[in-house]
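Dock calcium ion; give full complex structure.
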Amino acid sequence: MRHPALVPALAALLMVCGCDTAPTSARAEAKPATAEAKAAAAPVATTPAPAPAAAPAAPAPVAAAALQPGLAGEFFSLSEGPEDFPTIADATKPTLVRVDGQLNVDATDDAFPGTQLTDHFYARWTGVLRVPKDGKYTLAIESDDGSRLAVDGHQVIDNNGLHAMEEKTADVDLKAGDHPIKVEFYENDGQLGLKLSWSAEGVEKAIIPASALFHASH
Ligand SMILES: [Ca+2]
């Protein structure tokens, strides 16, 4: 209702202010603006506003809401080439923090994918391994250089040492559900690589998929 009234008001304003040096363009600007205003107003007039009484979405379970896909990775550049797992002081800030959907890096002379780290670094990934059903799982870490894996707070694979791609495995009985895991890895120099895989009865060995790895969000 106020828009039609606005047009004469605007016209009167234009006349009063003496803006008749460009009356055509002034009207040309005014008309589309009015049309737009009507178009914008139309849905409001014909469509009722969303009912505020709509039922809110059911809250997600806390545990599910706190987990995000992928493992939380922290990379630390080191001043010297490590020959064993380095001790990282709690106060040490990581060189790089990111989420990795899976760990699947073939031996390479280049940097760890997505980083500028080629030599002299340590990295760790924490999160949970989501196990689909009860059973015996063969977990495997292949790495250049050293790596190790902890499940449910216990180290299950030690693949320490300076070596080319080398795989170590462990058979672990796991219940269906989420198990905290921690993967550690360091690279001295030369090539690097890191692959985390699993197999189970009736399930062929494969890189642990991103769909089975999660980390706690903050
Ligand atoms: Ca190496």
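Observed: DSSP finds three helices and 13 strands in the chain.
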